[in-house]
Amino acid sequence: MQEDRRLAVLRAIVEDYVATDEPVGSKALVERHGLGVSSATVRNDMAVLEDEGYITQPHTSAGRVPTDKGYRLFVDRLTTVKPMSTAERRAISTFLDGAVDLDDVVQRSVRLLSQLTRQVAVVQYPTLSRSTVRHVELVSLGAHRLLVVLILSTGRVEQRVVELEGELADEELAELRSLVLRTVTGATIAEALVALRALGEAGEPDGRGPSAATVQVVEVLVDSMSDHRNDARVAVGGAANLARYGDSFDSAVRPLLEALEEHVVLLKLLGESGTGGLVTVRIGAEGPYEELSSTSVVSTGYGPREESLATLGIVGPTRMDYPGTMAAVRAVARYVSRILDEA
Amino acid sequence: MQEDRRLAVLRAIVEDYVATDEPVGSKALVERHGLGVSSATVRNDMAVLEDEGYITQPHTSAGRVPTDKGYRLFVDRLTTVKPMSTAERRAISTFLDGAVDLDDVVQRSVRLLSQLTRQVAVVQYPTLSRSTVRHVELVSLGAHRLLVVLILSTGRVEQRVVELEGELADEELAELRSLVLRTVTGATIAEALVALRALGEAGEPDGRGPSAATVQVVEVLVDSMSDHRNDARVAVGGAANLARYGDSFDSAVRPLLEALEEHVVLLKLLGESGTGGLVTVRIGAEGPYEELSSTSVVSTGYGPREESLATLGIVGPTRMDYPGTMAAVRAVARYVSRILDEA
DNA sequence: GATTGGCACTCGATTCCGTGGAGTGCCAAC
DNA sequence: GTTGGCACTCCACGGAATCGAGTGCCAATC
Question: Where would I find the Heat-inducible transcription repressor HrcA C-terminal domain in this sequence (chains A, B) (predicted)?
Answer without folding.
Answer: 103-326
